[in-house]
Design brief:
alpha+beta; Nuclear Transport Factor 2, Chain: A
Length: 204
């Protein structure tokens, strides 16, 4: 995996994967267990990265992302107030495009494994209706990177709704800033075209 992986941590949100299962801390909190499971799936994908190829990684990661992330909540927050003015068909199309973009971003970035590992902090912080799971990503070389996941309960399960890189950069805040100008210029159709173009770019 390239050194650019660490620098792109915020874009992917994502992305914490790594290390041998023996290195994981016990995670009795259900939110921390979600992060543990997500990490395990990402590690598996990284180890198979070359044999799967880019599109293989994408299809492998789609159900993993769907299971771990609350995509409908994320896209609604990222779009902001104009979400309520969109038709159900537009909302559905944007949700699907955002789901595909999240999976495509992981598939593009997780292109190999070089012995990275992740440690999950078992002491989960509760903030209102949400929980924050702190993690540290230890790359093959260089200093560890702090990445925190914000999770919210949905349908009886805890799901990721935001990721913070080095304790400061919110993925959703970044997305919302990016989407705002596009929505102002062309509304839902323009944002949908933008998301689909980003998916195509990640999968080239």
């Amino acid at each position: 995996m390239s050194e650019g992986f660490v620098r792109r941590g915020v874009l992917l949100g994502l992305a914490l994967a790594a290390g041998a299962p023996a290195a994981w801390a016990a995670a009795p909190d259900p939110a921390a267990q979600v992060v543990d499971a997500f990490d395990a799936d990402l590690i598996d994908t990284m180890k198979q990265a070359r044999s799967l190829g880019l599109m293989g990684r994408f299809h492998h990661l789609e159900p993993i992302v769907t299971r771990a992330y609350d995509i409908p909540t994320m896209i609604r927050i990222a779009v902001g107030p104009s979400w309520s003015t969109m038709t159900p068909a537009q909302q559905s199309a944007l949700t699907e495009a955002f789901r595909r973009l999240t999976a495509a971003s992981y598939a593009h970035t997780f292109d190999g494994y070089a012995g990275e590992r992740i440690e999950v902090e078992p002491n989960v912080v509760t903030r209102g209706p949400d929980k924050v799971v702190q993690t540290k990503l230890f790359p093959a070389h260089g200093a560890p990177v702090a990445i925190a996941y914000r999770l919210r309960e949905s349908g009886g399960a805890w799901k990721i709704i935001d990721v913070f890189y080095n304790g400061a950069i919110s993925q959703l805040t970044t997305r919302r800033a990016d989407f705002s100008a596009i929505l102002a210029q062309g509304g839902a159709p323009a944002l949908l075209a933008h998301l689909n173009a980003l998916v195509d770019k990640q999968l080239k």
